[in-house]
Amino acid sequence: xxxxxxxxxxxxxxxxxxxxxxxxxxxxxxxxxxxxxxxxxxxxxxxxxxxxxxxxxxxxxxxxxxxxxxxxxxxxxxxxxxxxxxxxxxxxxxxxxxxxxxxxxxxxxxxxxxxxxxxxxxxxxxxxxxxxxxxxxxxxxxxxxxxxxxxxxxxxxxxxxxxxxxxxxxxxxxxxxxxxxxxxxxxxxxxxxxxxxxxxxxxxxxxxxxxxxxxxxxxxxxxxxxxxxxxxxxxxxxxxxxxxxxxxxxxxxxxxxxxxxxxxxxxxxxxxxxxxxxxxxxxxxxxxxxxxxxxxxxxxxxxxxxxxxxxxxxxxxxxxxxxxxxxxxxxxxxxxxxxxxxxxxxxxxxxxxxxxxxxxxxxxxxxxxxxxxxxxxxxxxxxxxxxxxxxxxxxxxxxxxxxxxxxxxxxxxxxxxxxxxxxxxxx
Length: 427
Hints:
Radius of gyration: 22 Å
Largest sheet: 13 strands, mixed
Order of helices and strands: EEEEEHHHEEEEEEEHEHEEEEEEEEHHHH
Helix content: 10-25%
Distance between the termini: 31 Å
C-alpha cells in the first residue's frame, strides 16, 4: 500500500507585509501551521544497536498508518525574486524552474546518469541529482528545457554576469533560525548556494560508529535528545533552541555518553554564516499553531553576482512558497506577483488578475517597520503536485503556443485569482 502524500489542504494562505527604508527591505510572513515541532530536522537516532538517519517526512505528514515514523524535516518559507532578466518568470513563476528529470519526480534521473553528464557529473558540478534550473540555461529556444542540453560553462557565466538568474532566499526553522539568518541561493543551471558560508554544515556518521559530534553534556544531558520523549509528544521548545546543535556547544562524540537507546543528534550542526550566503537576516516564532517570520537584507548587498540588487521606485517579480515537514515537491507555491518598491506596478496578466497580482512595498523611516501600519496581503499558495514546465510547453497542451510566446500567464491558464482560491477552499 503506497503512502498518502497528499497534504491535508491543497491551499495555504500566506499573510505578507513588505516594507523598506533607505537601506533595507523587510518581509513579514504569517501562516497557520497547527502541527508542532516543525523546527526539528534531519536527526541521527540510536536504536536497536546502531545509528539511523531520521530525515523525511516528519511524523505529522500524511502517511500510511502502519509506517514507522522515522523522519524529521523543518518548516521553511522561501521566495523567488527577479528583476526582469529571466524570460518567462513574470508569466509562470516557479513553474518555470521544474522540469523532467528533477529529483522526486516520476522522471527522476538516476544518480549514475547524472554523474556521467559532462556538466552535472564528476567532471563538472559533481552532482547526483537534477534540481531547479531555468530554461535559458539550456540550448535552443528560450522555452526549451532539456537538462541534457545545458549550455557550456562560459555561456552560463555570461548569463549570470548579465543577471540572468533567480534569487532564492529561504528561512529555515532548524538550519538557519537559531542563528538569526536565512540562507541564500540562486537558480540558473542548478539551485546553487550563494558564495560564502551558510548557517549549517553536515557531520559524517556511520551506523556502527555514530556521528562525529554530540552536545556537550553540560549543555544537553547525555549528549543527545531523547527520541522517545519527542515521539510521545514532549517536543523541545522552539524558543530555547536546544533542538539544534551549535558548533560552539558540540564536542567529539563519545559512545560511553551518548550511545543509548533513543539518543538523537542532529546531522546538520549550525555555524556562523558569512559572505553573500549571509545577506538575509531572519527570525521566526511558532506560537498557537502559527508561524510568524521576519526576513530582511540590504537593498544593495555588494554581491550582484548571485543576488538581485534592489532600488526604490523599481518593480520586480516575486513568488513565495512555504514548506512543511518534508522536502522536494511537497510544498505550496504562489503564482508570480509584481512587487513595486514604493510604486504601483503594472501586471500584464488578464482580467482575472486586475488589481490582485500587484504588491507595493511600503516606504518607512527609522530602523525597523511598524508592522501595524503596513498593508497586509493574503497570498494564496497552491500544492503544485507534479505539474512541471514540460507539461506547459508540450505540443499537446491546448495553449502551448501561447506559453511558448509568453502571451499567457499561470493566472490565465487556470482562470483563478486569489478570491477564487479562497472561496473554493472555504466551500
